[in-house]
Every structure is written in structure tokens, then in C-alpha cells.
Amino acid sequence: MEHLDRLEAQSIFILREAYKKFGKLGMLWSIGKDSTVLLWLANKAFFGHCPFPLIHVDTTYKIPDMIAYRDRLAAEMGLELIVHRNETGLAEGMGPERGRLTCCKALKTEALQEVVLKYQFEGLILGIRRDEEGSRSKERVFSERTKDAEWDYTNQPPEFWDQFKTDFPKGNHIRVHPLLHWNELDIWAYIKRENIPLIDLYFAKDGKRYRSLGCWPCTKPIASNATTIDAIIKELENTSVSERAGRMQDQEDAYAMQKLRKDGYM
Amino acid sequence: MTDKRDTLKIVVVGHVDHGKSTLIGRLLYDTESLPEGAIAKVKRICKEKGKSFEYAYLLDAFEEEQKQGITIDTTQIQFFTQQRDYVIIDAPGHKEFLKNMISGAANAEAALLIIDAHEGIQEQSKRHGYILSLLGIKQVDVLVNKMDLIDYSQAKFDQIKAEFNNFLSTLNVHPQQYIPVSAFLGENITTNSAKMAWYTGEPVLRALDMLHKERGLAEKPLRLPIQDVYKFDDRRIIAGRLETGCLSVGDKILISPGGKTTTVKTIEAWVDRDKQAAVEAGQSVGITVTDEFFNQRGEYISRVANPPLQAKLFKASLVWLGKHDLLQNQKYKLKLTTQEVECEIYAIEKVVDAASLDSNANVQRVKINDVAEVIIKTKQVVCFDDFSDNQSTGRFVLVDGYDVSGGGIITGLYTAAKTPAAENTEFADAHKPVAPIARLAATAGKPLVRLEREQRLRQKGRVIWLTGSEEAQFNRAVSLERELFDLEKQAYYLDRQTILDQFLRESTGDDWIAKLADIAKILLDTGLIVILASGTVERDQLEKARAIIGKHDFLEIDAEAAGEVGELTQLTDVAV
């Protein structure tokens, strides 16, 4: 088996475990490259029938193209899509000017937990990867969150031999991470091999492209002339800048992501 | 960099503070595998804390880890050499984080075990060595680190090497290389160190490139544990991952337990590029079969000629990671591939001190981080292989409450007998589904089978057919029944005369031997040990009886020869 085949087989195995084990399961879809690969893998795992709803946590600050693309693809593929906003937070005027981390916590973390409670999800599938940043590199494939969405990262249970955490008290939920073992280049190589449709914000226009997608006030495009997947792969092979360098919330504090994720951030 | 290159997963283990994270940080730095951002971030943190650059911070990402200078949880990070890509798994060295060490190490294909040259071999050096042997990681290099602190002394290096090699060889772990290094100063990491000219082996990077990926999983017997069965449309797809072996459309397959056979009709796929007529180990697949009987998660697909073992009792070595001690007779959930069953610890044979290899045989509990040899009894039959034959189908975890609390490897079926080759075959055969004696079929419910009765009786049904003079047979039958009874076995003797007089009066000729064998066979089906004093019988008649009863259940014993009842107990003591 080749490298991408191994990654794919492992992800499919994880998706099938999650589907078997959790009565109420949903998959986060951020419109970005990783969760779009995840959607592709779910179709492979279940032979063209993605058997759980997709969830989009809409901060209302997303780059407008993302929303247009989301609605178009969902209609084309006939996806069951749950779009959720933290309406209370938004009504009270929450936004990045109140502080990036405060805003992330309210419009992403809290909105996500509202979805979990509203739909009684036992499992949430997310497209995070170990190579993105430090606290994600320490994650488990099946990672428990308490009823308050908290992650007890200093005392994670053992996880080995693909025997995942499937027993937990009612009210808690499990974050399932089928792409944990992939890296950024793997994702691009796979998108190329499988010819996966992708939003064009990733491809350079006027000397700029997005390497990681998020909310427009806190996400900066990088200087790039890469207009094709091959050009992107070549660019990534030669860069020494990290993938999330354009995500400004990460830079707020040395442990910003750890702090956000401890409270239930993706 | 992606599709055509190999990726090898390596774990770095060893005692706390012996320099695991520093070594990895150094490897990443020297191979320029890190993004600028990562190094800049660590520089910034170190500056804020008034420290010099800490390579370990590249991996110890948690605030708690950086503040306390320890690794709490395992991390995986990638780096690249000319030859291939690596995933390096950092594992904590503190005893209290052994669960995290195992979570990391269990994914690895090879290991680097680090020993501090100044401190020498410590408790976790040995415990981690033991864990590597338990995880079946055979490729190991030992790095003797902090050589700068002992003036790059060859004598001290040789001493550590000899002492540790001695320890590891008792675990059947045979390191490929011992490398003297200074991770912090970069000596013997990417190139040979000028400070240790006496060392003629490879530096770490080259040693890594000499490790190899495990091949040959596809050549092993087919093991496809069923993960789920889907019916999204008109197809009924059996989904699962091939742990070993390969499978093609048209192959005849056996589904265990239950022993049904069928044929692979199709291998399903969503996109055209995945449509294949044959699949192999490692692939997550979906198949349809020609006979649509009920299938469920946990069943095993194999070749007819090469089924997995099936039993409710087996021997295992395990490491316990639970908050509460592992107790004999306590109930746990056992997860083995996709099977999940309730189990109990039938016996704790011994608890091993993983650092000294001393063992204690009289214990009823296994404490956290201890290693033990146990016998596990499951509520339902489970399918598995010996770990030495097949790693992925020979290992399991135990769940206590909500948590995975231990992991183990299966070392064999449980039997009190010694294990000469003949017995192995016998046990394997004994665990094949036994065809029940044909009785009127019930209209509802599942009829009891012999295996269940045997489990209740804690013995294996057998027919002990005595030969020799009639008098010797009779005497032996009576004494044997008593001896087995005293050993808490259920045994019953039949003598030819009684049977002939009372039941077989109408029978004539040689037919009586077949009738006698039939009666013995019915009793055998109850799980009983039947002792037969059949009188003088011709050899061909005896073989006829053996054929009726079945060669594995038929024990021929010469009543005149001196015999040990102990041997018989062993033959009937097979737990099932």
C-alpha cells in the first residue's frame, strides 16, 4: 500500500468506528480543505451515503465566498446541513473587536456547544490534524469532552491498537479526529489524486491566496502565485512558514490554542 | 514527498530527563523539518522565561509541560531525510504517564531507547524496554545520551551497553545499534562525532534510515474482522479492515464463530479508481457475499482452511494502566479488534516487576503500571490468534468503567497441560465447532452445545478407552473414576458386560462395538469423561470405535501399563 492509501484506510476505519458507536453523530464542515477531504472520505467509507449531518458553525464573519460555496455544494450533493450561530452573542454585539480569543470562544466554542446540546450529539467528527499546532499534536483520535465541552488534556486516557474511547457518561461527547495523522501536504496530494472539488480561495489571485481559511477579520492571505494544486504542493515543499501563520487568534498568546481548545474549541 | 515515499513511525522512549524530547527537537532542527513559526515561537517563549533555547519545547507544547520541563502526553511530529519521511513519536518518561507512553509507542514500527550516560540505566529504561517487547516492537536502537557529561568515555559507554544488552536479551529484544550521542550538542546525530572517534557505527540519522518497514502482512492468513454491515441501498455491504492476508472476488470464506461458509460476490467502492477485484492487508473494504445470512460486527472472515482460534479462556501478558487495581474475578469489558465481550480475570498467574523482572506468583491484584501474566475468561467465545502469529488479532484492551485500563497480548489457549506439538493440534481441533449429537430440533431458542456444558464442568469431554486384560481394565476403570472424581472431574465408567447385558441383548456380531461407541459418544456430548472397559477387542474394532467417537476425543490407554492419573487430568483439563 502506498502512503495516501494507508492514510485513507485509517481514516475510513475511524469514521466507521464512530458511525457504529455513536447514535447521534455529526460532522463539522468548515468549507475548508480538511473538512472537505473528510466529507470525501465519509462518502468512501459509506459507499456514497454520508449517514450523518454536516454542521457549520457560522460566526457571520466568514469570508463571504465560503458561505456561497457552502450553499452551492450542499445543494448539489444533497447534504443534510445544520447551520448554527450563537444568536445571543451576536445580538449582544460580539465581534473580534472585543478581543480575538473572546470572540472565538463565543462565536465558535459556545456556538458549537449549543449545537451539541440542541441535537444531543454523542459524537462530533472534526478535521483537525496533529501538524497544525501544538495542542492538536497531543490529541487522541477519540477525545472526550465534558458536558461543559471541557477537554481534560493533562489526563487523557490511553488510546492504542485502534481501540478508541467509546464509553463515557451521558451528557459528555466524543470528538472524533479521522485526519489527525495527515499533514498539510498529504491533504493536497490527496485532493489532487482524488480530484476533490475545492473552494477557489486556496488558489492565488492577484499574488495572494489563503492557506488556511477562517473569519475575514482574523485571517490573512499569504503572498503566492500558486494557481494550481501542483504549484501549491511545490510552494509548501519549500516553505518554512507554518500553515496557520495567517490565523491571527493563534498569535494572541503563546498558549492561545491550548486555552481555547481546553474550553471546547475545535 | 507524498505518494511514492515511505513513512516510518518511530517512538522515542526512556527514563525521565534522559533527553527524549531534546533528541527529537535536535533531529527536527538539524533536518530543517520545522516551520520557521515553530522555532520562532519557542525562541519567544524561552526568552520570556529567561531560558536558553529548549529543543524539547518544540514538542512539549502544553504550558504545563514547558513550565515543569517534563513531557506529559505523547506527540507525533514529522521529519524528513533524503531517504524517507518519518513520524517521530515522543513518549513521556515519567512512570505516572505510562498510559501516555503506551498510547504513543503502540503506533510505532521501531523505537529509539534513550539512556542518560551519566545517570545510567534507570527504572523506566527497563520498564520501557519491557513495554516494547509487550508491544511487539522488534526494531530497537539504543542511544546513550549526554556523552558530554562523561567526557565521551568509551569505557562507560561499553559498560552501559553490556549491562543493558543483558537485560534486553532476557526480554527477547535485540537492539540493532548502540549509539553514543549528545543530543543537546548534536554529537553523532546527523554525522559521526569527532569527539568520539572510537565509535565506528552509524550516527542516529543514518541508523534510522537502516530501519525497515514491516512487510508481509498480506502474505499472512486472511483476517477480516467485521466492523459493520450496511444497507444504505439494495446492497448489503459487510465492512471491515483486512488486518492480514488478501481477498479476491470469488474467494470462498469462512465466518467465525458459527462456521458458515460463503463466497465473495463483489468488492464495493464509491469511486471508479477504487474498484478492485482484490484487496489486501491494511485496506478498509466493503464486500458483498453470495449467501445472505445474518452477519454482525465482531465476526471474523477467514479462509476455510485457516480459521482463527476460538475460545473463552486464554493466557495473556498485560500491562495495567487503570486507576483501580486489576482484580481476580472482577468483570471487565474486553475489546479485541471489533469484538467486545464481558470478561473476568480467571487467574493471575504472576505479577512481574518490569524493572527487575522479578515475579510474584501469589497475588490477587495487579496495580497500576504493573505487568502481569493472567488467564482471561470471556462470557462469549472470542476469535483471535496468538500474538506471536498475528499481532493485530492477538492483542486486546480491557475497559474498566468508562476507561481503557489495560492492554495485553494473547500468549496461548489456556490449558494445564504441557504443550508438545501433538497437544497443540489437539487444542486447535478441540476449539473448532463440535457437531452436536443430532437430537430433535427445538422450535425456538438456541440449543445447548457441548462447549457450554464443558465450560460449566471445567473439563473437556473425553472417552478413555482402556485396553489390556479384562481384569486390569476393570480395576483401572474403577480407580480412575475415583481419582478423577477426587480431582473434581465428572467421570463415569462403563463396562462392556453391563452394557451388553442390559442394552445390547439384541445385537449380534461385531455391531456391538459400534453401539458401545455410540453410547459413549452421547455421554461425551454431555461433557463427561467416559471410561470404557470394553474387554478384549480386535485392533480393527478399536479403530472403528475411534472413528465413531472422533480421534481427538478418543484416548486409548493401556490398563496394564503404569500410568499417571496426572497425565489424564492434563488431557481432560483443557479449559474451553
Q: What descriptive keywords fit this protein?
A:
heterodimer, A: 266 residues, Rossmann fold, 9 helices, 10% strand, B: 576 residues, alpha+beta, Elongation Factor Tu (Ef-tu), domain 3, 26% helix
Write up this protein.
The complex is a heterodimer of chains A (266) and B (576). With 266 residues, chain A is an alpha/beta fold. Chain A has 2 domains: 3-183 and 254-262, HUPs (Rossmann fold); 185-251, no CATH class. Helix content of chain A is 38%, strand content 10%. In chain A, strand 1 (25-28), helix 2 and strand 2 (54-57) form a beta-alpha-beta unit. The longest helix of chain A has 20 residues, at 100-119. Chain A is globular. Chain B has 576 residues and is of the alpha+beta class. In chain B, the strands form 6 sheets. Chain B has a 6-stranded mixed sheet, sandwiched between helices. In chain B, a hairpin with a 6-residue loop joins strand 18 and strand 19 (359-360). In chain B, helix 12 (511-525) packs parallel to helix 13 (539-549). The longest helix of chain B has 17 residues, at 154-170. The radius of gyration of chain B is 30 Å and the shape is elongated. The two termini of chain B are 51 Å apart. At the A-B interface, helix 1, helix 2, helix 6 and helix 7 of A face helix 2, strand 2, helix 4, strand 7 and strand 8 of B.
Low-confidence stretches of chain B: 417-436
Unreliable spans of chain A are none
Instruction: Give the biggest beta sheet of chain B.
Output: 6 strands, mixed
Radius of gyration of chain B: 30 Å
Rg over C-alpha atoms of chain A, rounded to the nearest angstrom: 18 Å
Strand content of chain A: 5-15%
- Number of distinct beta strands of chain B: 27
SSE order of chain A, one letter for each helix or strand: HEHEHEHHEHEEHEEHH
